[in-house]
Sequence to fold (891 residues):
Amino acid sequence: YEPEQVYSEVIGEHLGERDRLKVLESKGKRITDGMVKRIADRIFFPHRYTDEIRHNQRVVYKRYSLDALNENLYQILQRLYQQLKGSEKTLRIVRESLDDYREMVGFSNENLHALLDTRHRQYLPGYSKLGFMYMLKSLIDPSFFRVEQQLIRGKAYHFCQSIVFNDPDSGHVPEKIINRFFNAVETMFEYRDGMQSIQHDHSMSYRHRNSYHYPYQDYTFQELTGLINLLYIGIVQPTPINKVDLSPQFFTDWNLALMQLTGSSYLAIDNRRRLIERLRENRPIAYFPGAYIMYELEFFALQSIRSRMKLPLEEIITRELLEKEASKLQAVYIFAQEKNLGKQLNKDEITDYIIHGISEELKLLYEFKVIQIIRTKQVCVGIHFPQLGSQALKMLREIRDQKGYILTNRSNAAMMTDMVDMDRFHIGKVPNEFTAHMMGIPISSGYIQFVPAGVRATLSYPTPVQTAKEFDRGMKSDLFKKLVKKLGEEAVFSAIKEDAALHGSPLKHALNTLANREINPGPVRFSFLSGTYSDGMPYNGALASLNFRKESWDFMAVSTPDRPRTVGQFVNAFKRQKGIRAQIAWNGGYILNPELVGKLGLPETYIGSPLGLLISGGIMSSAPLFNKPALLVYKDGSIDIQRVNCSNGLKLSWKGHEILFDQLAYNNDGKKGLRSYYDLLYPKDKIEGEGRTLIRLSGNVVKEVLFTRKNEQLPVVPVGLTLALDPEAVPKGLLPGEVVELMVPGMEEVKHAVEAGPLLLEGGRCEIDMELEGWKHINSIRTQAARLDYTEMRGPKIAVGINKKNELAVLTINGRIRESVGATHRDMAEILQMHGMDKAMGFDPGGSSTLVVGNTTLNISPYNSSYEEDAYALPPEPRAVSNVLIGFIDE
Fold:
């Protein structure tokens, strides 16, 4: 019977034998002879099976009668009532718990600052802040974020159930108290306070089209477990009970014991050799115990100390030995929380186990302070440094200063130690898809992971440029070994740590940079950068600077006549067609995409139309349409950024005909039948016909030629220029599809130009003015795939800056990834200002932002076209664009 789960429920396979139906069953379509005989016996000799029949009758009556159905419905309605019942008391408990937890998570002191360098990075203890989407499909599919939110809620309620299940006294807690706890968790998800001042284009609130602030979304899922635990402690008030697993010890061999501690038969990340070497060294250990305290103490404490004392496995540690050796031994510090959390033992339980347990050796080590227990304030899973408390942080810093390291078997620790300035070893087994994708290894595989101080193993989730597995490969690569041999391991780790703090580069790039430090830079120098905004949110990206001292540069704006291409494809095509190698390339200005063409009700011929000035090789293929900035490359090689418009006149040429418009013809009302031309800053939504012939352009292509009557009005199409002429002034044969030549006064010496925007810097000052440039105009808004006129919206961005020496730099800021929330226009201006730019402008932002240097794509695209195949995470894949700017050396 399929589905099998339904069959199992009906039979009652999950119930005790007394409440389970007795049935005859076989698998597959073939019925065996034995099965036929058993069926026949029951048909022809039913009196031999009366007990079976009575059992089934009783089970059916108990489970499937009207009385049973009535009871089930009553229980369901009771539960629904309890779930939906809100109360001021529950809301008050949630508010108080949120206040208490905010203080715990936000704790900071000098010791914490020493352990977590947050000058350029945000500490992220978990997958990602719940206020942001962190499943790849959610970033691309506009409705999938609801699935992600439900998944997070489901995981949260599963954690709630595990707390209840692992509490030995929960069976004696009244049901109304347990219901109150679950209601409090539900209230936690629903409670909101105030609005968010800055939006992010991958935030849950933006997807919901609001700006509400939900306090629980300030935390990662791992942090959320602490809030849930606080609610449980406050409402249920559980009693701690010593529950150490006293099953037999299994230590016979270092490698085997470590493998067994992961709980997996396959190690996807294996750093056993490095860990065993560390355990044998006389260094202090900050040990955060997991669920198997007895085994872990045997291995990480007893065997480690026995090895340091040069004792064989079979020799027992005695009081006499410790009296001689204890003062020379660095301690094993056990960091244990004072409050309960599921199967994890608290400080008092561990202390009781060591003092009153079966191991005399542990007792002695505790007595001689070779094992010490440090009380922590933490209430969430894994390791959360701000929650540890001041005393624990002080001790952790002392351990670090004595070249100690963190060792943990906690299942969430690998997601939470993040960028702490201590070497750490994580031991565990991958529990779910999120962890599997972040680490880059299969579900249920084990890991013994080493991460050096100050470094993140996984970068740019959910489009990772480096997973924990790839980081591990880099640490075992020939290049790493070569550098260690040349510079020493300590120097290599120091360089990796410095790069991680300042640039956030993948390990492969950091090692290559270290290896090529003495090589002269090429025509384009680039570096990765990272930082945090004043509100604590993180950003990272790349800055590419062109070497104008040694090279003579030229630029070209290149467009595709057909379907869009990636910037990398443009670069390859440029080399094939021109025989010139592109040194740098980035996505250009704005175009009309198919979605917008459909929304505006325009013919398909408008797809790909440029939405601003575009000049390539001195040929203007589109005139300015607003007052937005353009990057201008002049024939003499100089570059500039300035706002451009066509208010000073326009010249149109076609097959020997010239049509001139002076500045008086610009956006006039046309009521007297005057010759006119209209850009998209025209304030009205309709143009007066007055018997004139209207010519609609898209770029430099005639799209429509319309003849009007007296008093007739035609709507403005928010795509290109509209020309209004006397019928006699229209050249014969000028029909839709014809290509015309355009020229705007002042642009005669421009060789290449691309209009984009907004203007970010002018004279070294922030000069963002969305009104002046026309971004707030209805015609601009109608052609924006996303609202570019919003100044308080963070997302992926790209911009170009020019310094006072007339040297150009390109900045890209990543968005929609774990380490970078993107940037607002003002954020971009401030970052460029910090890097010495005098003038700057933005280019087409969002998922299309792409910066390529040589053959290397520097930005991280929050996109992969195979997102339907893997909704969680995939490597970044550049999006296609319609035009690019290419910089190359002028030979």
